Amino acid sequence: MNCVENMEYDEELDEFIFANDQRLIFQYETTKMSENGYVSTKRRYSCFECTGCPFQSTCAKGKDRKTITISLENQRQRKEIRERLQTKKGANYIANENVMWKVYLDS
Fold it and tell me: Transposase DDE domain: which residues (predicted)?
């Protein structure tokens, strides 16, 4: 329920749809530059209709409302990687990685 990958994204409204058809609405965007010059942009989304929702205690984690902060660029990259790993080449890569980890852990 709390994983952004499990939420539907409405690109037109810039909102995430999650449990009980609630919406996380865009609030604001922040941009920071790290010491090594990497620029990251994060977006904050909040739900304003949590009162009375049966999922509030687990979803909003005891707070008044659910709020998430994400990087859309990071989400795009994660989606691309998931799609690559679902190809035959990706499946072979995962199989080879598992063999390498098994050898490493067994030594």
Answer: 26-92
